[in-house]
Description:
The structure is a single chain. By secondary structure, the chain is mainly α. The protein has one domain: Orthogonal Bundle (Arc Repressor Mutant, subunit A). Helix content is 46%, strand content 5%. Helix 2 crosses helix 4. The radius of gyration is 13 Å and the shape is globular.
Amino acid sequence: METNLLQRITHDINICHGKPCIRGLRYPVDFLLELLSAGMTIEEILADYEDLEREDILAALLFAARLSQIKSIHKIAS
Length: 78
């Protein structure tokens, strides 16, 4: 189940500057997380954005959960 959800998260440099998005659509994961943190329910988000599916919201939450499990972040020299 988790693998199927995470496959909904895509990265394409030509879409939203490469930010993680939902299914190649122009819905960045951080946008959906902000809507949820502002108090919107999954049902409200789905009503406002008809091309999203419940699994898309769950994928965004799972993606955020996985990111929070990273033990350390190292800056890469440019």
